[in-house]
Amino acid sequence: MFKMIIEPRFGDADGLGHINNTVLPAWFEQGRNPIYRLFTPDLKLEQWELTMAKMEVEFIGELQYGKEVEIRSYLLEIGNSSMTIGQEAWQDDKLGVKGKTIIVHYDFNQQKSVPIPKSIKNELEKHLIKGTKEHED
Amino acid sequence: MFKMIIEPRFGDADGLGHINNTVLPAWFEQGRNPIYRLFTPDLKLEQWELTMAKMEVEFIGELQYGKEVEIRSYLLEIGNSSMTIGQEAWQDDKLGVKGKTIIVHYDFNQQKSVPIPKSIKNELEKHLIKGTKEHED
Amino acid sequence: MFKMIIEPRFGDADGLGHINNTVLPAWFEQGRNPIYRLFTPDLKLEQWELTMAKMEVEFIGELQYGKEVEIRSYLLEIGNSSMTIGQEAWQDDKLGVKGKTIIVHYDFNQQKSVPIPKSIKNELEKHLIKGTKEHED
Amino acid sequence: MFKMIIEPRFGDADGLGHINNTVLPAWFEQGRNPIYRLFTPDLKLEQWELTMAKMEVEFIGELQYGKEVEIRSYLLEIGNSSMTIGQEAWQDDKLGVKGKTIIVHYDFNQQKSVPIPKSIKNELEKHLIKGTKEHED
Q1: 3-state DSSP assignment of residue A92
Q2: Cα distance from B36 to chain C (closest Cα, Å)?
Q3: Min CA distance, A133 vs chain B (Å)?
Q4: Does D114 contact chain A (CB < 8 Å)?
Q5: Confidence bin at A130 (pLDDT 50/70/90)
Q6: In chain B, N or C terminus with fewer CB closer than 10 Å?
Q7: CB-CB neighbors (< 8 A) of D104 in chain C
Q8: pLDDT digit string, tens, across residues C19-74
Q9: Is the pLDDT of residue A5 over 80?
């Protein structure tokens, strides 16, 4: 599991005083950096080969400005040319938001999905979480 | 169905030259303004009574900077105290992104969901779309 | 003068209930689209030749969610290879925010500024505002 | 001087492959958290008493996705009821962006500026930088 600490910005809270819903996809994007590095070690945009097919975000509790948030990221499923990444945002030891994204290994020149290389699959598998009730839905 | 035209900003495109995934939840949020107005006619934050339970965003085609995007919003389901809103982002007559959000009618003082008033339900029902293949999944 | 209507998003308001400061640079960026089009008519990123040297944003009054904002954009100064763009955000007939950006005509391959072509200068000059007390500082 | 490490998000880079201009005000906002804490130790929004009068951002070099950015924040000037905060964004030991914001100590109920308490001034003064050519303009 990959963990990243995020410090909310003043403007991340919305008019209700909670972190706005639209902020979470950006936090989760940041939290996926270590997974992206398995594909593109130095995160060079010119070598990018991933594209998002779907994201789901489930809001469980309110997150607030003024306290650190821990983003946890792990693999839920590893397919031939795509993977499902699970993510969670924790604050004060409470799970606030859960997310799931399907990312496709993609060749932007050929405009088609391509298999995930075996060596990357092996790395991804180390972060595969299954059978844990708390992490699956 | 509610329609809103959005003009992308230069910074909405990411390093791959397409509208970044994290932009869509913000566009869909903007597209829900007319639905929010059914609950809070002048959108006063002090009278707010909606909270998001879940969002799903499905990326079908690439969206680009430099061309208008039409956000279409409608009701997929109207429950007792919650509703499922369907949304679509169109550019060049092509469906680029589909979204679905579950929004709960909520009393922030009592911290609990409350029934959607009948008069608002009647309004929402006018924008309920069912049986159309293009709008359901 | 270029005018653009922007409809604030729920998340644009921050914990104080006003449009957050960090939103304005994005609104102004959107408001500069018609000026960008004078350089790159279809806003193709591959043909981009502008870069920002400086931005200034002055907050005069509070802007709110729930009401349209008008972004006004005009030229304050046109130099050999750069220009100063003035911008304003109006809501309810009140000036809320003023901005100023210095944009450089730039050759990204050669990594240096290049003169603004005469034909574009002529177009820009049509939107040059001077001598008006309300627009200068 | 306050230092904060920020890890860019994929979507922070724009179509030119560099961190978009509009991202910097948000990074600087995050970098001001430790200064905000001198006024509101737990950053509670209900006790907020600061408002921004002006921001300036100067773009010196390009910042990139894939490498950490260090945000440095310090005081340039401490007035009776306002302060000028200087900020810098460094990447790869190079100064990429400089910023300056004027923040006013403000009573939102009375809608007027109020003096900065002496005890807070004392704390702020510890982070006052003057006479250094690199930090002033």
Answers
A1: coil
A2: 10
A3: 19
A4: no
A5: confident
A6: C
A7: none
A8: 999 999 999 999 999 999 999 999 999 999 999 999 999 999 999 999 999 999 99
A9: yes
ipTM: 0.93
Q: Residue type for A137, please? A: D
Residue-level pLDDT at D81: 98
CB–CB of A9/A17 below 8 Å?
no
- And the tokens for C15? 């914990």
Window A:39-98, CB contacts with D under 8 Å: 42-46, 65-66
> What domains sit in chain D, N to C, each tagged with a CATH number?
2-135 (3.10.129.10)
B16 contacts chain A (CB < 8 A): yes
For residue D133, pLDDT over 60 is answered with no
C-alpha–C-alpha distance, residues D83 and D101, integer Å: 8
- Per-residue pLDDT averaged across D45-54, rounded? 96
User: Which H/E stretch holds residue D74?
Assistant: strand D69-78
Residue B108 contacts A where some CB pair is shorter than 8 Å: yes
C54 and D58 within 8 Å at the Cβ level: the answer is: yes
| pTM recorded for the entire structure | 0.95
* Distinct helix (H) and strand (E) counts, chain D: 3, 6
pLDDT of D130: 72
What distance in Å separates residue D14's CA from the closest CA in chain C? 10
The residues with which B84 forms a beta bridge, in sequence order, are: B77, B102
Question: Which candidate from D15, D26, D52 shows the least CB-CB separation from C45?
Answer: D15
- Write out chain C residues lying below 8 Å of D26, CB-based: 22
Return the exposure string of B63-79: e unless at least 16 CB atoms fall within 10 Å of the residue's CB, then b: bbbbeebebbbbbbebe
Nearest to A54 among B16, B51, B59 (CB): B59
Instruction: For residue A106, count CB atoms less than 10 angstroms from its CB and return exposed for 0-12, middle for 13-18, buried for 19 or more.
Output: buried
Phi, psi torsion values for B111, nearest 5 degrees: 55, 45
